[in-house]
Input
Amino acid sequence: MDTTLEQAQQEIVDEFAMLGDWQDRYEQLIELGKELPLIAAEFKTEENLVRGCQSRVWLTAEPRGETVHFTADSDAMITKGLVALLVRVLNDRTPQEIMSTPLTFIDRIGLREHLSPNRSNGVVAMLDQMKRYALAYSTK
Output
């Protein structure tokens, strides 16, 4: 990975700063979700569903060398954009980076205050699941 986790977060902050209002930002989230690589159908299982999300979110991870590679999908457009942001920042990072670096972009772009409580809880659930995968792969 060429960019640091902090640089990846700053890129998102810069992208969202260029958008005028939250309607534009929601549209950006939807576009990011459309750009998320498709997850193989066999991974859309009950086992890979993120618990705590109102929408259905499938999240998988696999170790790739020293890093963790994530794939994800959702049946809801904005939620898919949210998980796309998390994958963009945390994908192909070491377990230590994933577990120890705070994700400041969420507050810096104002995401937390513009999401419904259910979506906000879903973001926390997705992030927790990603950290659990990182923890699992850090011990192997």
